[in-house]
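Exercise 3.2. Students should predict the tertiary structure of the chain below and write it as structure tokens, then compare their answer with the key that follows.

Predict this chain's 3D structure.
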Amino acid sequence: MKALRYYGRRDMRLEDVPIPEPGDDEARLRIMYASICQTDVERWWHGPTMARWRTDPKTVGHETAGRVEAVGAKVRGLSVGERVMVNNIRPCAECFWCTRGLQSSCADVRSAGFALDGGLAEYMVWPESHLIKLPDSIPDVQAPLIEPTSVAVHATRRTGVKVGDTVAVIGCGTVGILTMQVLRAAGARVIVGDLRQQSLDLALKLGADVAINTGAPDALGQLMDATDGVGADIVVETAGAVVTPRIAINWTRPGGTTLLVGIHSGANRFNFNDIVGAERTVKGSVAASPGDMEKGIELIANGKILLEDLVSTVIPLKRVIEEGFERMLRPEKDVFRIMVTPYYRTS
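Answer key:
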């Protein structure tokens, strides 16, 4: 079968590898669609930025959905032909962090597409315990977006948002748009910020209350006007750009919370007195914990999160580098998520 393998910085190869056989507690999936995350692109272009990403060559792809093609001897809850979503995060369940409900910080966490083979391939195997059946209401081509939705759910939980809070989301890429929708479902008023007008327009279409171009000279003034001069109760930064953590802290009201979600490929600098002097709380959020993906599926199935506009195009696996990764790297990137299928089709 064909699989996209990551060897290191600027070294990915579409290779022929054996079709994997499922273990006793695993299922083999025929991949329907996998999507390309900006984190995948950053890792390819800049190299691993987190220790957990430094692994031997593995198949890329952590946003993946497929059909069960074969099951192991101990699998009881899945049948051949069923559609499933890959719950890509596998914490150890035994370490200091896992036993305290902090699975995303697990000392031995493994993830599809990083420490374990992922879904930018024709087939993959995955444990039954980490496969979630898909409701009929979620189309095949939208299913990989459940993974970034779980990231948005996890981030929203990390904020501690309450009904009536004003929350700003800086960065209206896929994760930012999804986080905005999860926050809206939680009862927040949401302000969004981005440089790209296409992103701001989509955020407004999907429910954002206010949209601000973060590159405008009066961006902070617009934020203050929208919050009666106070600032946002919570600011969620999803862009991962050099300047966005500083913007996020400045947009957060004194005594408020800044949540950093974006993965950064380089060092950032900001004035720590902006945190100390205003008694702001700054948190990080990465990936997801058990239950986040199931909650995301529930929100999507109930129409609280809309995915269709985030699917920008569909490409074949054989063109994944040229039409996928290279396109995502362009400064004028005009896409949200690119869906990749080994069996090219448009529905």
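Discussion points: The longest strand covers residues 26-35. The two ends are 23 Å apart (CA to CA).
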